[in-house]
């Protein structure tokens, strides 16, 4: 059996608009009356995020002083993963067609994400994605989970999944961050990083995945080339 374990945000969902809108909201709330700030355009902001520039530094680049930048970073962390902003997400380009192909060819598909249950269910309902994932193949954080860190949390999810899922003769991981790569490497799983998410090529190369490709569809093509059904 061929199995693909995929991250959700990045390969399947484009979160860039949500992140950018929260950036603008936090900048507006933190700036003082009459204070001049520099509102980055979306492309500028997203490139900073993808190259792992810190939230504090993004605040400084946007014209905030040091204390304001710290407050900006704190506010952004509190808001960006909350319900009022998830409607800004959209399907990543080509993701739906890729999911349909995976279903058609009969690959065992598992989703593994740092989203909480309610956040994953919201996206499933919004885009009718539940049809592609059995409930026993969805690994995410509980609604009351206290996050330790993406790498540790994702590695724990991977450990849980490998204990619970039936054996597969060939397993691949698709993700867009260092957490996905490290979680897969920890358990000897081949991992493909996609550039459609929140890390650019330079950042992904640092973690030495087996391959780096453009997007979810490109990852599937590579898997089928190397692991024909």
Automatic annotation (TrEMBL):
It comes from the Bacteria. One of its GO terms (cellular component) is cytosol. SUPFAM superfamilies: HAD-like. InterPro entries: HAD-like_hydrolase_sf, HAD-like_sf, HAD_sf. One of its GO terms (biological process) is DNA repair. Pfam families: Hydrolase_like. One of its GO terms (molecular function) is phosphoglycolate phosphatase activity. This is Haloacid dehalogenase-like hydrolase.
């Amino acid at each position: 059996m061929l199995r693909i374990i995929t991250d959700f945000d990045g390969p399947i969902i484009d979160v860039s608009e949500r992140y950018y809108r929260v950036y603008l909201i936090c900048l507006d709330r933190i700036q003082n009356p009459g204070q001049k700030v520099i509102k980055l355009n979306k492309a500028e902001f997203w490139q900073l995020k993808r190259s792992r520039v810190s939230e504090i530094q993004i605040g400084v680049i946007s014209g905030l002083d040091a204390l304001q930048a710290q407050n900006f970073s704190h506010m952004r962390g509190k808001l960006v993963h909350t319900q009022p902003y998830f409607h800004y997400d959209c399907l990543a380009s080509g993701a739906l067609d890729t999911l349909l192909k995976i279903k058609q060819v009969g690959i065992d598909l598992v989703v593994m994400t740092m989203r909480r249950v309610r956040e994953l269910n919201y996206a499933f309902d919004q885009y009718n994605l539940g049809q592609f994932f059995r409930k026993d193949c969805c690994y995410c954080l509980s609604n009351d989970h206290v996050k330790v860190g993406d790498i540790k949390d994702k590695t724990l999810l991977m450990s849980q999944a490998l204990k619970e899922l039936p054996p597969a003769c060939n397993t691949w991981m698709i993700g867009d961050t260092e957490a996905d790569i490290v979680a897969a490497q920890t358990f000897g799983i081949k991992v493909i990083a996609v550039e459609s998410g929140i890390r650019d090529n330079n950042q992904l190369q640092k973690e030495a995945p087996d391959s780096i490709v453009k997007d979810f569809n490109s990852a599937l093509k590579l898997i089928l080339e190397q692991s024909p059904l």
